[in-house]
Amino acid sequence: MLAPLLVAALAVPAQASGAANPQETLIYMPYGLVHSLRPVTAVDGYLAEVDSYGIGQILFAMPKFKKLGVLKVPKHNREMLVRWATAATSYDAKHDRSMSLTAVFNGKVLTKRSGLDLDDPTTRAHMVAGIESSLALGLAGVQLDLEPYPVSAGFISLLEEVDAMFARVGFAGRFSVTAPATTSRWAPGGGAPAAWGALHPSGVRVLIDQWEQPARFRARSRRGADSQRQRN
Hints:
Layout: H1 3-10, E1 26-28, H2 32-35, H3 40-52, E2 57-61, H4 75-95, E3 100-108, H5 121-135, E4 141-147, H6 153-169, E5 174-177, E6 184-186, E7 195-199, E8 205-207, H7 215-231
Parallel strand pairs: 1-2, 2-3, 3-4, 4-5
Antiparallel strand pairs: 6-7, 7-8
């Protein structure tokens, strides 16, 4: 059952989560729930438990990108992602909910000797192709978790190429990236609606549809704020 995991992740009782917007509340599900085949009845039960905590976004980690950007998704993972997406759609219809499935695409960025070279067009093309092939599994959201945080111009190119692919295939779901806690809220163009962005090391503002800071960064930010208050 997921109850112990949910309590540990949220540190609040189920009834206390009612004030949050479920569509903006997420949980990172254990890898085993998508890596191993499980019956539809079990998935339905997991969805009910997640829903009881007021959580609307379900995140699953995808296998890591290979060195050249290739993504290999095992057969069981693909089958279970479809099962989760189908079950979520059915659950929404029965209970008037809007639960969504987000896949987290992760990988190690090139440092000294190994990792993803985002400045290489071929590597980026492989990554975009891997994301595109996964959309057919029923994903409502895509998150990029590339570490250490990319600092090359190739990262901007990757985001633009992913965005272009979304437009080409008609994907209108969530798109987010993990990033250091330093973010800012600004209105591009002076009068356009405000959007979340981050100041990329190259000086380029990175725009995404929704900014989702990883829990580890949120916790670090809270600790820093608490320390600052104590010093004052």
